Amino acid sequence: MVLVEIFGTGCARCKRVNRNVEIAVGELKIDAEIRTIESLDAMIERGVMLTPALYVDGEAKVVGHVPCVEDIKQILLGVK
After folding, report:
1. Cis ω on the peptide bond leading into residue 67 (within 30° of 0)?
2. Model-level pTM greater than 0.85?
3. I need a labelling partner for 59 at 20 to 30 A (CA). Which of 21, 27, 33, 80 fits?
4. Active-site option among 4, 6, 14, 53
5. 50-78 pLDDT, tens per residue?
6. Contact yes or no for 69/16 (Cβ under 8 A)
7. pLDDT for position 20
8. How buried is 58 (Cβ within 10 angstroms: 0-12 exposed, 13-18 middle, 19+ buried)?
9. What is the torsional sign of CA 77, 45, 18, 68?
10. What is the average per-residue pLDDT within 35-47?
11. Is residue 11 among the annotated active site residues?
12. Does the structure show a pLDDT above 80 at 6?
């Protein structure tokens, strides 16, 4: 199972990342746990300084912008 974490404050951009991740996971039909983390304390603890941030299996993949569905699919497939 892949762990996908989306760090953000609940803004529109963060929600868009969440939606794009859900679409990508659905299209790839992979087993993934998607967590949305809005706690500032949790973000500071993990070193997230810009949001939205997308982490896959504990590794930062996207920070500070909204990746498109295709980019997320490439990340989940290990290409990016």
Report:
1. no
2. yes
3. 27
4. 14
5. 999 999 999 999 999 999 999 999 999 98
6. no
7. 98
8. exposed
9. negative
10. 95
11. yes
12. yes
